[in-house]
Target: glycine hydroxymethyltransferase
Amino acid sequence: MASIPIPNDFNKCLYTPLAEADPEIQALVDRETYRQFRGLELIASENLTSLAVMQANGSVFTNKYSEGLPGARYYGGNEVVDELEVLCQNRALEAFHLDGAKWGVNVQPYSGSTANFAAFTALIQPQDRIMGLNLADGGHLTHGAYTRKRKISASSIYFQPLPYQVDHSTGIIDYDALEKNAILFKPRILICGASAYPRDWDYARLRKIADINGSYLMMDMAHISGLVAAQVQNDPFEHCDVVCTTTHKTLRGPRAGLIFFRKDKEADLEKRINDAVFPACQGGPHNNTIAAVAVALKQAATPEFKEYSTQIIKNTRTIAEELVKHDYKLQTEGSDNHLVLWDLRPLGLTGSKIEKLCDLAEITLNKNSVPGDKSAATPGGVRIGSNALTSRSMKEDEMRQVADFLHRAVQIALAAQKEAGSKLIKDFERVLKGDGEAAKQLKQLSEDVQAFATKFPLPGVPDSSTIKKTH
Model:
């Protein structure tokens, strides 16, 4: 087909590349690309997705509106989108080794939080009772989080939550206490899944607890879904009624959500789930993102992805072992998955200070509550994930170096806190940006981290020489 001339009228801008159309945004893209390249990404809820996923996410599928389901849309022109969504559904079932006669999946949720709320909407009524892991014990905001003075999440505003906890002496979920409380509270949904829990789940025990009251058992596997697909974690599908997930963490896709549901649980459950997603909780699906999810799911069904997932666990355990060698305290003293939860309270440090210092050293991690914390504003720990660094092909030897960087960061923080003469974070930051010994050590750490990180490629950028150095 002959090339059609680009119009020279008011639509000329529709054909202009980003660098020319909006240099300001292009500069931000360049800065973020370089930030990711020069640093160490240790946030457990983040990953570095593939070039193919990025290309699908930025495709012409972004133009199409498609409210409804395949074969039952409210708009015309969806014959290709229908094929795309069915393909994504089939790939989701394949990636998680599911029988399509027993399990269905909705691939339209915009995120994990909307997937969870749609599942609640489908399963129960407003003010029904739910039980999820306590936020301060590693749970998730969308599982019923609240404080003494405030209902934090919509899940606690519209439903009645009662959290369960870990045993503070071990850091492991206290299943016995959970069972006792479930007998009294009689939740309609028992939720498993977490955002900062370093161990695997006993789904058989949770199923027995759920069955005491005829509760639904719902798993939010957002953090570990890639590890579940790779079959290096226990399988929630053996015991759960509904399984929700995000797609951008260990699954390494774009930012979206999925809801899996048992088709043989209740005759109308599939319709209730689909109706809860649309029209109850959201509008037209983001077809470009569904295309990118489909790409990620195809990747997740490969032998290479299983190797990657196996390496994630090896890398996490290596970081944990190295930190323990320095007598640091880790929740549960190790990990079965992609994260470790580091308790800094014995050192007299807060997670906020280590997060701030690590930011200045090009190490990205996040402050996190640890069981027993009195305040979420000044949490006593940090959460460290290995999934993104594993996506940069780092293995055990590199994790030993990363653990050494983390050890140096904590020692600098102790020195800075002493130099500040107070425990106020403003004084801590002042010292780090000053010209004292702690600031000098921090500058050297930052240089060492950048020299190390830039030896490894950045997923999505095939030619690292094209990455523009920015300040």
Observations:
- The CA atoms of residues 4 and 15 lie 12 Å apart.
- The chain has 17 helices and 15 strands.
- The first helix runs from residue 18 to 21.
